Amino acid sequence: MEGESSGRVIGHYRGSEAGPLVVAIGGIHGNEPAGVRALEKLFELLDEEPELNPGFTFRGELLALRGNLEGLSQGKRYIDADLNRIWRPFIGKKPVFQTSEDRELYELLACIEHAVEEAPLSELVFLDIHTTTADGGIFAVTGDDTPSLSLAAEMTVPVVKGMLSSFQGTTLHYFRGDHFTTDFPVRAVTFEAGSHNDPNSVELALAATINLIRALGCVRDEDVNTYHDELLRGAATHLPALTDLVYIHRITEADKFVMSPGFVNFQAVRKGDVVGRDRNGDVAVPDAGYLLMPLYQEQGDEGFFLLQDYKMPDGY
Ligand SMILES: [Zn+2]
User: The domain that contains 304 carries what CATH number?
Assistant: First the structure.
């Protein structure tokens, strides 16, 4: 299929039974190769599985893609533009690419649309795997609708809601929003697998992906090693199960924002705690909660995020 020669496609597994089409992408940010490695390992496991376990069956399809190929080859988050902020449809047959990431997006969409057209799918599920610069905690981000939240929860990882209304142009927006009109259900989950350079992030991303395809019924419970569940539960111990985004500290280069060292994901903070500095002096958190994704890299438009515990209203 298209893209294969460029290294875009990690693998395309077609099960013997019809079911959901799962599209998994690693390396949307080029300095986050753990997701790519996890998906490569998943395809190695899928190749071996029928020999080790003759009763193994797979329902539906799994398409795994490398996100920002040029960014991955240079080990940079992006070349010209953040690939997780520009998702939109291309109008017309021959687009002119303004940025390196425009081309990446065009190729990704071509692969996905091709798979959607070919597959007799019951549902489209999109998994986008990332890692963060900070230590301390794995989590899933998804839409605030019940089917998406329950799928994320079934991955047995902490779930962060409320992100969708705060950004434009992310993969979640594209697949959960108006750009992708379908006559079948679409769900999208972003998984943050730990810190960029922790080898454990690869294992956690692999475990979360396996839990996702199990939750969707692509693979049977009895065919999944409980090792993955234990790994995720171990990494999520002491982390809040469901939180809501309440604040984003947005920055520009001119702000000269520098996060104070030592903060980790889900670190509890009190209102007024100083967490960084910019050209105007100290930067404090506006409310109590948990810090998420404190910025410890040069590229990025958000200094940190603030979360608070969230309880689902009755009826969910
Ligand atoms: Zn990322």
Answer: 2.40.50
